[in-house]
Amino acid sequence: MKTFVIIILLLLFIWIVWSMxxxxxxxxxxxxxxxxxxxxxxxxxxxxxxxxxxVIGNQSNPTSQAFxxxxxxxxxxxxxxxxxxMTAPVATQRESTxxxMTAPVAxxxxxxxxTMSFMMPSKFTLENLPTPNSxxxxxxxxxxxxxxxxxxSGLATNKKRLLKIEKLRKLLKADxxxxxxxxxxxxxxxPIKFPCLRTNEIKIEVKRLQEL
Length: 212
Fold this sequence. Notes:
Elements: H1 2-21, E1 31-37, E2 40-45, E3 48-56, H2 62-74, E4 90-100, E5 108-119, E6 138-142, E7 145-153, H3 158-174, E8 184-187, E9 199-205
Antiparallel strand pairs: 1-2, 2-7, 3-5, 3-6, 4-5, 4-8, 7-9, 8-9
């Protein structure tokens, strides 16, 4: 029994040490901190290119479906079989959509879609990115802008995501800062990283400071 406990503790130690150094060299969007607020930051991000896919939320496990599409692309599911370097973070955004039904019954149905995106390495442009095999993967250039960002650690469960979004919105309202986009959840680490060492962020675009 004592040996078993020692092995478990040793494996836990290895997991924690590995987690402290994993993914430290991944390319991320470049930004400058404009202002440190209580509980969050205002950052100015440079423009960058993303690959994205959208999945209807009522499908089974939309996160896995979206990740499978994007992961397949960067691991070689493109017309030139080119592997693309992984970047961080993985961004997800959920939106409720209203779908009009046809006659004779006039009604509307609300649904939720989830869009997941990966930043493309900075060496690529929209012109030289390999064409994905899947038609569900598309590219878009994110323009430079100012964003409010709230950072938190641990598992980014849906409940925690909603709580952090609500918190950031309340902080922005208290500071009289106008949000102009839907919130995104940013996850910087692999799922196998030690939970307490994972870094997550809620990101919302805001008006430029000189316009506030």
